[in-house]
Design goal:
Elements (H helix, E strand, L loop, with lengths): L1 E5 L4 H12 L3 E6 L19 E5 L5 H11 L3 E4 L6 H6 L1 H22 L5 H6 L1 E7 L24 H20 L3 E6 L1 E3 L8 H10 L4 E4 L5 E6 H14 L5 E4 L4 E3 H15 L10 E4 L14 H7 L7 H14 L1 H4 L18
Parallel strand pairs: 1-2, 1-4, 2-3, 4-5, 5-6, 6-10, 7-9, 8-12
Antiparallel strand pairs: 9-11
Helix pairs in contact: 1-8, 2-4, 4-6, 7-9, 9-11
Bound molecules: nicotinamide-adenine-dinucleotide (NAD) and 2'deoxy-thymidine-5'-diphospho-alpha-D-glucose.
The site of nicotinamide-adenine-dinucleotide has 30 residues, from helix 1, helix 4, strand 5 and strand 7.
């Protein structure tokens, strides 16, 4: 089985690539290598004979056509995206370019590729679109978690662009018969996450003795999933999910931001006792515009149909993540020099 992964040099994509190679799949990774990519995340597989890399923009129609023709994949898992909400507030059009136009261009390339396949391969081909729970908008504290029947109500330019891409995938399935599966997942965390998202920001700033920014009062709730558990779920849906279906994926680990940050600080206290308590570094800062209050996922469908549930308890995953960042400075140090890193993003208004 040859899998084409888009965005495989990013956080979740690289976890998928590493797992797929470990399971004996061949992988071609198509990635533009934007600011959030780090080829070092693929050091363990880059010399493997089953791994190939193509640097390309998913919005480049000729490049997508050429990559499909050259590698003849049996499936495409589409993760390439602009993924950071705060950056989508400062520069929404990059999100429209990659997440909307890029997805449409990729779907068109797949549509043209399908008839070139022999019948057997065409019958088993599938396009797996990897999306987010943010397309459903924000939950109140007493609301039932999101599930596959929840109406779309995106609030940020990021989530609106992902919602648009979900609709495009569905339309290409209904209208052109592109065989697809779609997943909407909650917040991922773990090794190799770019240091602009909450958990690596907290860990790296606290390790350096810098203020730890918590938006608003830290009362927003996210549902956290260890990235390697997500990668397992994705390969399972790719293999066994029903065509044309959506699966919601989550960690069953809702935490208020402030509680999560304090847990990370306690873990850092054990690593750097002399700098304890790290919680003294917490600083409440101006809230994110349009900040979604709460995300939570009901995973009954994927659990019932495919037997998946999150494997890593959050306390264990957070502990592992803190230790990973402490031990892998060569991975993250160069990323601190990249545009926007270490600066407060997402406060733009009129
Ligand atoms: P990331 O920002 O770490 O990685 C994105 C990757 O896509 C990078 O390697 C980047 O170079 C590549 N890319 C960006 N634009 C591209 C383009 N035009 N052409 C080709 N490659 C391009 O993101 P992530 O956190 O790993 O998220 C991956 C996917 O999972 C995204 O689609 C995101 O919406 C979705 N998702 C993320 C989370 C999360 O918590 N991080 C949760 C649910 C869903
Ligand atoms: O729910 C899935 C989504 O999770 C993915 O689709 C996105 O790609 C991913 O970035 C993530 O979005 P969030 O906006 O939830 O993640 P982020 O890490 O940016 O923020 C998590 C929470 O922490 C959010 O409530 C904002 C808050 N926050 C964030 C940062 C970066 C802070 O309080 N301080 C910070 O410095």
């Amino acid at each position: 089985m040859k899998l084409m992964v888009t965005g495989g040099a990013g956080f979740i994509g690289s976890a998928v690539v590493r797992l797929a190679i470990a399971r004996g799949l061949s992988v071609v990774n198509v990635d533009k290598l934007t600011y959030s990519a780090n080829p070092a995340s693929l050091a363990s597989v880059e010399d493997h004979s089953a791994y190939a890399f193509e640097q390309a923009d998913i919005a480049d129609a000729e490049a997508m056509k050429a990559v499909l023709a050259r590698h003849q994949p049996d499936a495409v898992m589409h993760l390439a995206a602009e993924s950071h909400v705060d950056r989508s507030i400062d520069g929404p059009l990059a999100f429209v370019h990659t997440n909307v136009t890029g997805t449409a261009v990729l779907l068109e390339a797949v549509r043209a590729y399908l008839p070139t396949l022999e019948a057997g391969k065409r019958d088993t081909f599938r396009f797996h679109h990897v999306s987010t729970d943010e397309v459903f908008g924000a939950l109140g504290m007493a609301d039932r978690p999101f599930d596959e029947t929840t109406a779309y109500a995106p609030n940020s330019p990021y989530s609106a662009s992902k919602a648009a891409s979900d609709h495009l995938v569905r339309a290409w399935g209904e209208t052109f018969g592109v065989p697809y599966v779609l997943t909407n997942c909650s917040n991922n965390y773990g090794p190799f996450q770019f240091p602009e998202k909450l958990i690596p920001v907290v860990v790296l700033r606290a390790l350096a003795g810098l203020p730890v920014p918590v938006y608003g009062q830290g009362l927003n709730v996210r549902d956290w999933l260890y990235v390697e558990d997500h990668a397992e779920a994705l390969l399972l849906v790719l293999e066994k999910g029903r065509l044309g279906e959506t699966y919601c994926i989550g960690g069953e680990a809702e935490r208020r931001n402030i509680d999560l940050v304090k847990t990370l600080c306690l873990s850092l206290d054990a690593i750097q006792p002399a700098a304890s308590p790290h919680a003294r570094l917490i600083e409440f800062v101006t809230d994110r515009p349009g900040h979604d209050l709460r995300y939570a996922i009901d995973i009954a469908k994927i659990r019932g149909e495919l037997g998946w549930s999150p494997r890593t308890p959050i306390e264990e995953g957070l502990e592992r993540t803190v230790h990973w960042y402490r031990d892998n400075e060569t991975w993250w140090r160069p990323l601190l020099e990249r545009d926007g890193v270490g600066r407060r993003l997402g406060l733009s208004s009129f």
